[in-house]
Amino acid sequence: MPFDALEADLEARRAADLYRRRRILGSPQGAIVDVDGRRLVNFCSNDYLGLASHPDIIAAAQAGAARWGVGSGASHLVCGHSAAHEAMEARLAAFVGKPAALSLSTGYMANLAAITALVGRGDAIFADKLNHASLNDACQLSHATFKRFPHNDLERLERLLATTEARRRLIVVDAVFSMDGDSAPLAEIVRLAERYDAWVYADDAHGFGVLGDGHGSAAGIASPRLIYMATLGKAAGVAGAFIAAEPVVIDYLVNVARPYIYTTAAPPLLAEAVLASVELIEREHWRREALAAHIARLRALLSGLLPSQTPIQPLVVADNAAALALSQRLRDDGLWVSAIRPPTVPTPRLRICLSAAHEAGDITRLATTLASLLDKQ
Known about the structure:
This protein is an alpha/beta fold. Strand 6, helix 8 and strand 7 form a beta-alpha-beta unit. The protein has two domains: 4-49 and 285-375, Aspartate Aminotransferase, domain 1; 55-283, Type I PLP-dependent aspartate aminotransferase-like (Major domain) (Aspartate Aminotransferase, domain 2, 3-Layer(aba) Sandwich), CATH 3.40.640.10. The chain has helices at 4-15, 55-68, 76-80, 83-95, 107-118, 133-141, 154-163, 186-195, 247-256, 258-261, 268-283, 286-301, 320-332, 360-375; strands at 32-35, 38-42, 100-104, 124-128, 145-149, 169-174, 199-203, 226-231, 241-245, 312-316, 335-336, 338-340, 349-353. The longest helix has 16 residues, at 268-283. The protein has 14 helices and 13 strands. The strands form three sheets. It has a seven-stranded mixed β-sheet, with helices on both faces. Strands 1-2-11 form a three-stranded mixed β-sheet, with helices on one face. Strands 10-13-12 form a three-stranded antiparallel β-sheet, covered by helices on one side. Helix 12 (286-301) packs parallel to helix 14.
């Protein structure tokens, strides 16, 4: 049969505890959700500020649909770029302290668009080994020389920069690493870029809205060499992504980046929703304060976590089976925590995600339950 090899591969994944399946969400995103017919406390979501179901954002999306319709009708360069898109890009650029911005439908697409447009054969990319898969894919597809340095190892990065003869040099990092929750030393990396005539591309999917008083991991870094990307489906609670940089960079991407040029623009109603979200991020400081308190509480109650000061709190376990078993036992107790396994991460773990929407009691319950389960292992 033509599909025997596929079935054999899936069976091998099952045997290695690497098989994945989708859980069905039967409720809006939030701290408490219905999953496969069960009510669970949600510690899986990247909705860090609890904005995904905020009534102001819902109202902005509804008003946007009433004004603009649903579909955008075409790519941005044909007839799909609305005044809503334009206003959103200007607002996002100003919010992160950059002169210009470009919106795209997903973070994966943004990374692919920017990196493959900016560098190619004859150029070099220097990337952290723990970067997100979308960054790695974009680096490989760019056809530039792709060199990886150990996680946050600036000495190794500097040696690579000092010895390259590449025409263009691009340093690529996650600003917040999605599976470990730690941060890249962006200010130091930018200083290296200035010393060795390089650009820095920072993916701040998990820092935007949370760090830098909401302005992101690059807040206070004014270098034009920094090209900043953030997603809008995590802390912002909507969808899409944007790249913020010097006007010449944005203009270049508009003209050269194939994933941008050849994609239908996102619905304008989402741009209206993002504008409402940014207002909330800027105004409601209490959300970040609540989130910080939850992070501190969990870390105080539970030992064994990796050193993360962000909403992503990883608990590394022995193997894939242990990760799945712990996740299932937590789910049996009404707590939803994802088991993350290779190839997503080199070491299996539970990835605990905290939100401003959680209550203090949710954090205590999770820590107490986890500690009891770990004691029984």
